[in-house]
Amino acid sequence: MNASTRHLNWRSVLDTTASVMMIAAATVMLVSFVRGGKAKASVRPDPPLPTSPLTLDAVVQVGELTAPVVIVEYADFQCPYCGAFHRETWPGLETKYVKPGRLQFVFINDPLQMHEHAERAAEAAVCAAQQGKGWEMHNAMFADQGHLDEPSLLSHAVGLGLERTQFGACLSGGAASRVKIELAEATAVQATATPAFLVGTRLPDGRVRALRRISGNRPAADFDAAIDAVLKTAGR
Predict the structure, then answer these.
(1) What confidence tens digit (pLDDT) does each residue in 78-115 have?
(2) How many CB atoms neighbour CB 40 within 10 A?
(3) Separation in Å, CA 1 to CA 8, 11, 13, 14, 15
(4) Is residue 69 over pLDDT 50?
(5) Where is 61: in which H helix or E strand?
(6) DSSP H helical segments within 103-212, as ranges?
(7) Are 76 and 138 in contact (CB under 8 A)?
């Protein structure tokens, strides 16, 4: 092999290596761009806070009416993230803020169409509230999200000591209109995914001025920070 041939072979090797490196670099840049685009697309900004105070007429709630801070949750009983919040995060909030009288928690039914049993479960909460056990039914359904069919809802009702005939009659149609009202309230404040939370301070007329929005099942520290900020605003 003469010098000229060796030179051509090395030139070919170098050209091939350079081409491979350019392709590899372009692939890395493309993957990074696509991943970055997906990451940015998945992070949606929170909707703006409601400009008008909230008039709360929910049937499922817990805590003192005089509490300076109110959390309004818009949720679906079949939503796994809603269930995780109530099983994992809620107990700490109840102990730290609700029992000392610093927080009232209001639940607004926001059943999603994708969940087969969500609307019926929402109606069950309303029916239980008619007999003074709305919060207890709320807890029972979130504790057992795998059983939200109608026989299971009736079983929950009996277990809570509700009058079966009255509960059954309500579940057969009496509660649907109330759920539609709450669903409209969720739509009005742009609670587009569940769970969604508004944290606010109670006004002298009983309405609530929303000051913070929390989207999704966030860590407990996020709720603590929002509640503490509103308590500070309220001078508590």
Answers:
(1) 999 999 999 999 999 999 999 999 999 999 999 998 89
(2) 9
(3) 11, 15, 16, 19, 20
(4) yes
(5) strand 60-62
(6) 118-130, 134-143, 150-159, 164-169, 176-188
(7) no
Confidence of residue 173 (pLDDT cuts 50, 70, 90): confident
What CATH topology corresponds to 60-233?
Glutaredoxin (3.40.30)
pLDDT, tens digit, 9 for 90 and up, residues 112-166: 988 999 999 999 999 999 999 999 999 999 999 999 999 999 999 999 999 999 9
Residue matched to tokens 């102990």: 95
Amino acid (1-letter code) at residue 183 = L
CA distance 73 to 70: 10
* 208-215, strands of its sheet edge to edge: 60-62, 103-109, 69-75, 196-202, 208-215
Gap between the Cα atoms of 65 and 218, Å rounded: 25
Q: Rounded to two decimals, what is the model's pTM?
A: 0.79
Which residues lie closer than 8 Å to 200 by C-beta, 6 or more apart? 54, 69, 70, 72, 208, 209, 210, 211, 212, 230
Whether 226 and 218 have beta carbons less than 8 Å apart is answered as no
Radius of gyration of the chain (CA): 27
Locate 198 and state its tokens.
Answer: 């508004």
Question: What's the one-letter identity of residue 81?
Answer: Y
DSSP 107: E
pLDDT of residue 73: 97
Q: How far is residue 147's CA from residue 18's CA, in Å, rounded to a whole number?
A: 61
Q: What are the beta bridge partners of residue 215?
A: 196
Helix, strand counts (H, E) of the chain: 9, 5
